[in-house]
Amino acid sequence: MPVITNKSALVVPSPSASISNDIRGIKPPVQVPNDWIWAAWLTAFLLVAVLSILAWKRFGPRMFAPKPVVIVPPHVRAKQKLREALALIHDPRLFCIAVSDALRVYLEERFDFRAPERTTEEFMLDLQKTKRLSAEQKESLAEFLQQCDLVKFARFEPNEDELRALHDAALRLIDETQFDQIQTPPVGGTAPAPLQTT
After folding, report:
1. What are the start-end ranges of the H helices in 72-158?
2. Could you tell me if 154 and 147 are in contact, meaning their C-beta atoms sit under 8 angstroms apart?
3. Domain count of the chain?
4. Under a CB-based contact definition with an 8 Å cutoff, are residues 85 and 167 in contact?
5. Residues 117-138: pLDDT tens digits?
């Protein structure tokens, strides 16, 4: 034991004290609060929102707008059906059904005739009352429908040339009636006077 000679004391470290004052292990990192991180997140959110709104205004209506419906005129659909009917020319009955149906549907769509759901006789009676077709067109249509009925119901079997003639008659009627007649003043006559406005 050391001797104490003055008021200052000499402290001798004990063995347990030397172990506790030794180097300690590394502590884990401490999170330092960053007051600006919330501002960065808010700015990013606002930027994404603004870009989304601009993109929607630019591209959104076009992406979600309904696609425009393409209206195919009746004469175009009828001619397409007549082209498809040529694949059936080796079966006269099916060919005549396809050709007459194409022409009947065309007449209903073009002139508002109730052709598909009526018999040929009923349809021809109504057809005589209209002025939308000329007398030659009415006569040609009557012959066409009667020949088709012979094949469909009386089991008449025409040859391929006769079937092609039926096909050509249907095409000719469609070509003649696909557009409205344009009213023109008579030759040498005068054009109608303009309407008076009040």
Report:
1. 74-85, 92-111, 120-129, 135-153
2. no
3. 1
4. yes
5. 778 888 788 778 778 888 888 8
106 within some domain: yes
Tell me what pLDDT residue 34 has: 74
Amino acid identity of residue 69, one-letter, is: V
CA–CA gap between residue 99 and residue 85 (Å, rounded): 6
pLDDT digits (tens, 9 = 90+) for 106-120: 988 888 777 667 788
- The pLDDT of residue 171 is 93
Helix axes 74-85, 92-111, angle to 10 degrees: 180
Asked if residue 26 is part of any domain, the answer here is: no
Domain of residue 171, residue span: 74-177
Dist. CA 84–CA 97, nearest whole Å: 12
CATH of the domain at 164: 1.20.120
Give the integer Cα–Cα distance in Å for 127 and 118.
Answer: 12
